[in-house]
């Protein structure tokens, strides 16, 4: 052939291209570190100087654990699998629901009802069969956290509860694993690489842990409101993609001496020196606000806290305390179940409430109804109220109610004045999405003296619109 390319070069290229077919594994006694299929598959990232052959080999030998196969875990898993991370562990106890699909991109309509880990394994195997998937079809608890996390090199926290965040971070400190932590809610997200480098507790050169950044959990009531759960797919997707990127960077930056698995009770001095020499990036908190300009901000984080309960010299979190169950993460983060602080007389079931409405709609003698129509206050945010609402209900969002200060002097809020004008013999029925905010509202109304010293009844519609849909009106939209 006279196309200008020497035959020996051409033969070598053809030989390399045929690797994947299993026809040629060696040429002239040379063995390539990756298969022909791998050269082809990862070619576009192999030629990146940030990766190169050495980086690809580290990815191939690495194992990453993804805790939570939801809005964060799905895109993270897809990109890590695509990049050729050798082993991916997946932890999740949940099944795929149709309301997951707008953001959890590994799952699909046909997989509704399937476990999320099974669905993710199917997807990853379809994307890249070089990747070994290890499904952990369970929730992460103090009892299993160390056992699962110890099997992996890098951990991604893709969960959405404070209790699991503290547990995963504590476990990563104890096992000396770098942790890529992200969260997303509504239009915003956060990202941090924690415990990097993963030095033992008490070593000031180690990266800060989750407790260093957030020594105290957020108030439980702020975590469980009916307003929560709103999220835009690309927002959480962005954070998950960034988690995968940070994980790739952590793996590629790992020196080969660090590849050897670490024993819990054994500190390798040589390895420590290696880590000391290596300078990890200063820790940052990346904030993503998708409706702001600019959308990204980065905050420099301080190093480990001298008094951190997990990673300082005076740490109280130990393997023993974790294993013994003496660390109650749910308790630490506050009880997150419904508020339930109301008297039975302050609550009504959705069935009784429906009867009340039916009575008021039923005309009796002289065209007058049996009862006055109940005053129904829907305390969901306006955007939810606009989606669907009970006929005749009035919208006062809980965010407005909770921000009204009962002790403030001066003119009260307009909505308070309007409620006061309602005749005292008419009860106020409070409803929300799930029945939490409505209970808080009843308490708040008492503080605002809207019960007029007990002369007006303020009643929580138990279980909210979810219960209404489940027990009264199957056609009421579920969202
Ligand atoms: Zn710490």
Helix content: 25-40%
- Total helices: the number is 20
CATH class of the largest domain: Alpha Beta
Poorly predicted runs: 19-25, 257-262
Q: CATH superfamily name of the largest domain?
A: NAD(P)-binding Rossmann-like Domain
Description:
- There is one protein chain.
- With 479 residues, the protein is of the alpha/beta class.
- Residues 19-25 and 257-262 have low confidence and may be disordered.
- The strands form 3 sheets. It has an 8-stranded mixed beta sheet with strand order 5-4-3-6-7-8-9-10, sandwiched between helices. Strands 11-15-14-12-13 form a 5-stranded parallel beta sheet.
- A hairpin with a 2-residue loop joins strand 7 and strand 8.
- The radius of gyration is 29 Å and the shape is elongated.
- The protein starts with 6 loop residues before the first helix and ends in an 8-residue tail after the last helix.
- It has helices at residues 7-17, 36-41, 43-46, 52-61, 73-83, 116-127, 142-149, 162-175, 210-213, 220-223, 233-253, 269-277, 319-323, 329-332, 350-361, 382-387, 398-402, 414-420, 437-447, 464-471, and strands at residues 26-27, 30-31, 63-67, 87-91, 132-136, 154-157, 179-185, 188-194, 284-289, 296-300, 347-348, 375-378, 394-395, 428-431, 458-461.
- It has 3 domains: 1-32, no CATH class; 46-332, Rossmann fold (3-Layer(aba) Sandwich), CATH 3.40.50; 344-471, Rhodanese-like domain (Oxidized Rhodanese, domain 1).
- Bound molecules: zinc ion.
- The site of zinc ion (ZN) has 9 residues, from helix 9.
- Pathway: Cofactor biosynthesis; molybdopterin biosynthesis; tRNA modification; 5-methoxycarbonylmethyl-2-thiouridine-tRNA biosynthesis.
- Its cofactor is Zn(2+).
- It holds the Pfam family Rhodanese.
- ATP binds at residues 71, 92, 99-103, 116, 160-161.
């Amino acid at each position: 052939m006279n196309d200008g390319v020497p035959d020996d070069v051409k033969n070598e290229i053809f030989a390399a291209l045929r690797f994947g077919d299993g026809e040629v594994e060696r040429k002239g006694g040379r063995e390539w570190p990756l298969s022909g299929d791998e050269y082809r598959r990862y070619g576009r990232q192999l030629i990146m100087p940030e990766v190169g052959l050495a980086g690809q080999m580290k990815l191939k030998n690495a194992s990453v654990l993804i805790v939570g196969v939801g809005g964060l875990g799905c895109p993270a898993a897809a990109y890590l699998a695509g990049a050729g991370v050798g082993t991916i562990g997946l932890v999740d106890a949940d099944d795929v629901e149709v309301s997951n699909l707008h953001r959890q991109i590994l799952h699909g309509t046909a997989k509704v009802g399937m476990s999320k880990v099974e669905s993710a394994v199917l997807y990853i195997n379809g994307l890249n069969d070089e990747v070994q998937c290890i499904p952990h079809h369970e929730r992460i608890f103090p009892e299993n956290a160390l056992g699962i996390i110890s099997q992996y090199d890098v951990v991604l926290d893709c969960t959405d509860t404070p209790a699991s965040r503290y547990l995963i971070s504590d476990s990563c400190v104890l096992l000396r694993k770098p942790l890529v932590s992200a969260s997303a809610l509504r239009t915003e997200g956060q990202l941090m690489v924690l415990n990097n480098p993963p030095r033992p507790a008490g070593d000031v050169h180690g990266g800060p842990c989750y407790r260093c950044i957030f020594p105290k959990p957020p108030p439980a009531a702020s975590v469980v409101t009916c307003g929560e759960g709103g999220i835009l797919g690309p927002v959480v997707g962005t954070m998950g993609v960034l988690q995968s990127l940070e994980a790739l960077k952590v793996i590629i930056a790992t020196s080969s001496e660090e590849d050897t698995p670490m024993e819990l009770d054994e500190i390798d001095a040589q390895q420590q020196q290696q880590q000391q020499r290596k300078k990890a990036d200063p820790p940052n908190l990346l904030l993503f606000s998708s409706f702001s300009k600019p959308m990204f901000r980065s905050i420099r984080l301080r190093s480990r806290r001298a008094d951190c309960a997990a990673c300082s010299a005076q740490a109280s979190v130990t393997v023993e305390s974790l294993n013994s169950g003496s660390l109650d993460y749910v308790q630490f983060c506050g009880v997150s179940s419904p508020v339930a602080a109301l008297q039975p007389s302050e609550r009504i079931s959705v069935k009784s409430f429906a009867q009340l409405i039916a009575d008021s709609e039923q005309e009796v003698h002289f065209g007058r109804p049996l009862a006055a129509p109940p005053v129904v206050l829907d305390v969901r945010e306006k955007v939810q109220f606009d989606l669907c609402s009970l006929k005749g209900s009035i919208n006062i969002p809980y965010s407005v109610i909770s921000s009204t200060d009962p002790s403030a002097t001066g003119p009260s809020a307009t909505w308070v004045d309007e409620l006061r004008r309602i005749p005292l013999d008419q009860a106020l029925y409070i409803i929300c999405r799930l029945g939490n905010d409505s209970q808080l509202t009843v308490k708040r109304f008492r503080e605002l003296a809207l019960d007029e010293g007990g002369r007006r009844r303020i009643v929580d519609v138990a279980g909210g619109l979810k219960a209404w849909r489940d027990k009264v009106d199957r056609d009421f939209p579920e969202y």
